[in-house]
From TrEMBL:
<feature type="binding site">
    <location>
        <position position="211"/>
    </location>
    <ligand>
        <name>Mg(2+) 5</name>
    </ligand>
</feature>
<comment type="pathway">
    <text>Cofactor biosynthesis; thiamine diphosphate biosynthesis; thiamine diphosphate from thiamine phosphate: step 1/1.</text>
</comment>
<dbReference type="InterPro" id="IPR006283">
    <property type="entry name" value="ThiL-like"/>
</dbReference>
<dbReference type="Pfam" id="PF02769">
    <property type="entry name" value="AIRS_C"/>
</dbReference>
<feature type="binding site">
    <location>
        <position position="258"/>
    </location>
    <ligand>
        <name>substrate</name>
    </ligand>
</feature>
<feature type="binding site">
    <location>
        <position position="44"/>
    </location>
    <ligand>
        <name>Mg(2+) 1</name>
    </ligand>
</feature>
<feature type="binding site">
    <location>
        <position position="314"/>
    </location>
    <ligand>
        <name>substrate</name>
    </ligand>
</feature>
<dbReference type="Pfam" id="PF00586">
    <property type="entry name" value="AIRS"/>
</dbReference>
<comment type="function">
    <text>Catalyzes the ATP-dependent phosphorylation of thiamine-monophosphate (TMP) to form thiamine-pyrophosphate (TPP), the active form of vitamin B1.</text>
</comment>
<feature type="binding site">
    <location>
        <position position="208"/>
    </location>
    <ligand>
        <name>Mg(2+) 3</name>
    </ligand>
</feature>
<keyword id="KW-0460">Magnesium</keyword>
<keyword id="KW-0547">Nucleotide-binding</keyword>
<feature type="domain" description="PurM-like C-terminal">
    <location>
        <begin position="147"/>
        <end position="299"/>
    </location>
</feature>
<feature type="binding site">
    <location>
        <position position="42"/>
    </location>
    <ligand>
        <name>Mg(2+) 4</name>
    </ligand>
</feature>
<keyword id="KW-0479">Metal-binding</keyword>
<feature type="binding site">
    <location>
        <position position="119"/>
    </location>
    <ligand>
        <name>Mg(2+) 1</name>
    </ligand>
</feature>
<comment type="similarity">
    <text>Belongs to the thiamine-monophosphate kinase family.</text>
</comment>
């Protein structure tokens, strides 16, 4: 007997909720934020061939589909509450559904984020998730708070996901162990939820790196009405990327997407607090530049020389 829409939902995506007032099964879910909290809401749409390759394992795809949304909550400093799932499938493949649900719920449970509703339909493979979080009123991290003199930081390392993509494209060649590492970075990003919450009251602005470090930092600069100077050699990179030619290193760290690290700014006087927040969250952070009065983004190379770097990052309607 073929698996129908409602049987699919019941078998793979219906679980009892513990924090939501009402979850899957009614026309609307009911979420109750704690007193004094504001809801933080974000939506991402993932399309096969545009956001992920057809070769990705279903459990990794389930993880990433939620991770990119949790990363938005992290950039806001919010604590996850729940999410909805919109799923378009060419056909209900039960082996695929089992793997996808396993990866999705493994990450959801780690962050206490419950599936509370959604929709399924037949069509090209596409995944849309809307995530809900809570943040104390007036304490959300925004893109508009950076001020001249602030330090610019980034969490983790940059560029491995882009290097993996270029490996798939045939532009670079990597030995098997190195390829496995960068492929994991591309397919299993780790949302920095704990770091975002630890930075509340310390960071002046934040954004997550989805389309490329330079472009995403540019959103902060434009919203804040400031500029920035970066030190290209300070951008954190893995040992795998560090073995690539300097041009590839700069391309991947500055403009590579899919890192889902946090870029944030904080006053220079609060460096000790930033380091303490990073230790609390268990995530390394690196100071990579400063915020300037002069608009625009300047990238310095070795010996402080200004680099004429290509800073164009991913754009859904401009990038092939």
């Amino acid at each position: 007997m073929a698996l129908g829409e409602f049987e699919l939902i019941d078998k793979y995506f219906t679980r009892p909720v513990r924090r939501a007032a009402l979850g899957v099964g009614d026309d609307c879910a009911l979420l109750v934020p704690a007193p004094g909290m504001q809801l933080a809401v974000s939506t991402d749409l993932l399309i096969e061939g545009r956001h992920f390759l057809s070769t990705v394992l279903p459990d990794r795809l389930g993880h990433k589909a939620l991770a990119v949304n949790l990363s938005d909550l992290a950039a806001c400093g919010a604590r996850p509450l729940g999410f909805t799932l919109g799923l378009s499938l060419p056909q209900p493949d039960e082996a695929w559904l089992e793997g996808f649900a396993r990866g999705l719920f493994a990450l959801a449970e780690r962050h206490g984020c419950e599936l509370v509703g959604g929709d399924t339909t037949r069509g090209p493979l596409a995944i849309s998730i809307t995530v809900f979080g809570e943040v104390p009123a007036g304490q959300a991290l925004l893109r508009s708070g950076a001020r001249p003199g602030d330090d610019v930081y980034v969490s983790g390392t940059l560029g491995d996901a882009r290097l993996a993509l270029e490996m798939f494209r045939g532009a670079v060649s990597l030995p098997g162990e190195d390829f496995d590492r960068v492929r994991r970075a591309m397919e299993l990003p780790e949302p920095r939820v704990a770091l975002g919450q630890a930075l509340r009251g310390i960071a002046t602005a934040a954004v997550d790196v989805s389309d490329g470090f330079a472009g995403d930092l540019g959103h902060v600069l434009r919203r804040s009405g400031v500029g920035a100077t970066l030190e290209a050699e300070s951008l954190p990179r893995s040992a795998v990327l560090a073995r690539q030619p300097p041009e590839w290193q700069r391309r991947c760290t500055l403009t590579g997407g899919d890192d889902y690290e946090l870029v944030f700014t904080a006053p220079a006087a609060r460096r000790d607090e930033v380091e303490a927040a990073a230790r609390e969250a268990g995530v390394p952070v690196t100071r990579v530049g400063r915020i300037d009065v002069e608009p625009g983004l300047r990238v310095l190379g070795p010996e402080g020389r200004l680099l004429a770097a290509d800073l164009h990052t991913f754009d859904h309607f401009k990038t092939p």
